[in-house]
């Protein structure tokens, strides 16, 4: 599956609930997040941009990679493919991303009884 492209937020579910669970409610924004993905085989650069904020990670599918959370904390995690989905275990949630009908669909799932599934759909621009 080819992920390369630039995508703009189209819709999202459970955004505020997700930020609340991971302790980042103060990061809530009404701006449309732009996600840019550069893919070269199994190597990815994944960048999300808002006015005055950029968050970027480089990783290779099939390897343990050093990544960064939205707050800048570094951690290591294996990056895998689950079918056509990229999967990464972040410290506070499980992240997956896939392309469905030329849209980037990302899910962040927090664990536990009060787990939240945050779903973001972005259209190619």
From TrEMBL:
Domain of life: Eukaryota
Transmembrane segments: none
SUPFAM superfamilies: Lipocalins
Molecular function per GO: lipid binding
One Pfam family cited in the UniProt record for this chain: Lipocalin_7
Homology family: Belongs to the calycin superfamily. Fatty-acid binding protein (FABP) family.
Protein name: Cytosolic fatty-acid binding proteins domain-containing protein
Organism: Etheostoma spectabile
